[in-house]
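Hey, can you fold this one?
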Amino acid sequence: MNRSSDEGILMVDGCAVKVVDADRVSAVRERMPSAGDVTDTADVFGLLADPNRLRLLVALLDGELCVCDLAAVTGQSESAVSHALRLLRAHRIVAARRSGRMAYYRLEDPHVRLLLDVALAHTEHTEAIHPERDGRS
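Sure. Predicted structure:
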């Protein structure tokens, strides 16, 4: 991004973009998360973008479950569930509790529940248009 001689114009990919509200732009830039935080957040959304992992998380909305029960609830193999849980645990989306040889998984914290609740409410109250699925442009 290059600044032209006119302080109100920024050069972005060869296009001149006039900054209409410089104070607001400055305020938004100041509150923008760090690049690392944005990347970590994108990783979380990427993990939630997989329907099988999302099913596991929805199953955990009612409380903790072991791998066997999660496999039964979601129709996935125990191996697939274990793999998905490793990824989710590494990103602090789920947590585990050991009881003897069994591990019980739960949502890591209320933020994860809130994220799922809001996303599910959104899809239940809107009609999605999926041109990528329908072949429409």
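The longest helix spans residues 110-124. Let me know if you want another pass with a different chain boundary.
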